Amino acid sequence: VQLQASGGGLVQAGASLRLSCAPSEGTFNPSTYARAWFRQAPGKGREFVAAITWLGGNPYYPDSVKGRFTISKDNAKNTMYLYADSLEPADTAIYYCAAKRTKTGNIRSEGAYDYWGPGTQVTVSS
Question: What percent of the chain has pLDDT over 70?
Fold first, then answer.
């Protein structure tokens, strides 16, 4: 199963974007624990952006995006969203969505996730 992220684009600093993520085929089983957004800027490693537990809806953010980004989900549509407000040039990256099947592992760590997608490009101009 692959996750499909969409909604990226080229925007000016201060603008907003809404990213979406859904499975490209099939659906996850009910035991899916959480989904998350990571990003990777050119020449840098993959960075945790946000995560949400699929049943409880508990959100997790790093300090770098707290207060500007909001993660949400629609269980009926099997879709996760990332509302990115007050975008800055430093937010420029490929944004990936991921899913983890169990509670095992750090929810903020990319190594804990089982499914990934190809990502969507977000470019913020100054």
Answer: 94
